[in-house]
Amino acid sequence: MEPQPQSRPGPEGVEGVVERYLNAVRAQSAAVPASYPPPRSKRYPGSPRTPLPWPGPGAPPLTGAGLDRLSALLLGYGPRRVETLTSAGLSALTGTPSSGPVFARVLPAWFTLRRSVPSGGAYYPGEIYLAWTGSAELPAGVYHYDHVHHCLELLRSASPVAELDRLLGATGTPANGARRSALLLACRPWKNSGKYRAFGYQLGTIDVGVLLGQLLTSTPAATVHLAPDPRAADDLLGLDGVVESVYAVIELPTTATVEPDAPPDRTPPPDPVGLTNDRLALADADPSAVALHRAISAGGDAAVRADPHPPDTGAAASPPPPTTAPVRLPEVTSLDLAGAAAGRVSASDLAPGLRLGQLADILAYAGGHRATTTALDTLSRHPLHPSLWCLVSQVDGLPPGAYRYDPRQHLLWPSAGTGPQAPTTNVVDRRMATAGVTVFVVAGGHQPMADLTPTAFRQLHLLTGAVVQLTALACQAVGAAARPIGGFSARDAAEQLGLPHGHTPVVQLLLGAPKPRAGLLAVALTEGTSDA
Ligand SMILES: Cc1cc2nc3c(=O)[nH]c(=O)nc-3n(C[C@H](O)[C@H](O)[C@H](O)COP(=O)(O)O)c2cc1C
User: Fold this and answer.
1) Ligand 1 centroid vs 450 CA: distance in angstroms?
2) Please, which residues have CB within 8 angstroms of residue 241's CB and are 6 or more apart in sequence?
3) Which spans does this entry mark as compositional bias, Pro residues (predicted)?
4) Lowest-pLDDT range, 93-97, 148-152, 246-250, 463-467?
């Protein structure tokens, strides 16, 4: 039987939590608060640190073994490039003369650290932890990844295997000596809430999904666990689950070289720094977002599990195809998504010239038609996996209009929507929305979003984030440009797309041909690591 998403009524206290949260998001004003605390990165001062190999420009590329393998994987979240927007570039963007006093005094240049993943408002609320069974290069233990300095901070020594077994279910010891290690992806849900208020909770979960999607492109043998028991996972890392909590786990088979049954280390991890602003924001956070977070942490409802081999019942959850003939998309080309990560960036300007072949590849990799790893394939089969819809303005070889992507058959179905009218967002220049295509990541095919249980709601947003990152990587790989946008009118989008009842656009990506970025100086910090 096809696994069904959990629906209301759930356990006592859970009912209505998601709906109240969504109402609060809907009611919040579009204006950004005048001031809010800046995001701080988290560190564990005093804990032993293991620097990870840093493949700077000109250095030999990382290999696929030992610490190099971990380094390549974690660079998916580490700094990859420094970009400087010169005063000439700022002048071009703002229309202010670069010779004026403003640039000389206030904005001599604008520096940005670029990473493989985008994040709403560049808040990066995700944290990565490593529960490691031990190898010649890295002793067994639980580590925090300091993504600013690209190093591991030891929180606890000794093998975490027993705790991982409790968290993920025992597997038995494989004969080949492979042991279980894991990356645990946590979210700091209040890191962005000073700026984004209630909406920030949703945005932060998507951001962790983006990170999940990125890491899964580089872990061919991994198993993914969406929304594991948060209490057990947070305990393993010594987290205060209200301030920071584990949202997903990536299980990595590793070959351990340590005694498997060493007693677990019960020493509490050192105190972290960097969470003060999160706690301040939590004190001021939207009560419905806090209630939603607490409901998931309390573990009152079960996570929706993906069946790795669901029966092929056709697109049961998809709306029926319209009578118009579908557009047959060009054959999918082979793309190196892992290699594309180092150069990914969110476009701030788009040009016309996107071709149908490029769009076809982007949809195939992002929509689940072509999964590059087993874990990504599992995600694409999840009952809550979102679908992709498009508002096409200018794509060479495709008439403008509204379309639904069918990942099973790699087709575009014209939809009953009005097609692109006015852009559904005003956070970027109009030409960004009209130069190519706007791709929407749409929840649907299950009960309406407001009726999902809190845990299913989290899973949906993690899956959405993974699709965002796959879209961004596929764009980079085919030479297209993209910008994810969280702030847009879902009602306008639903109308223009012709979405069936119960379908909700969660995030959109503006796609087009890249434009030269005037006044921009970019320095690569790391080489590409496509052999990860
Ligand atoms: C889920 C999500 C939502 C976003 N929403 C917006 C948005 O509404 N407007 C915008 O200009 N950028 C948006 N962005 C892009 C971020 O601002 C961008 O990723 C961040 O500034 C880092 O820059 P980079 O992606 O170029 O590295 C979003 C990114 C993500 C992942």
Assistant:
1) 25
2) 230, 231, 234, 297
3) 48-60
4) 93-97
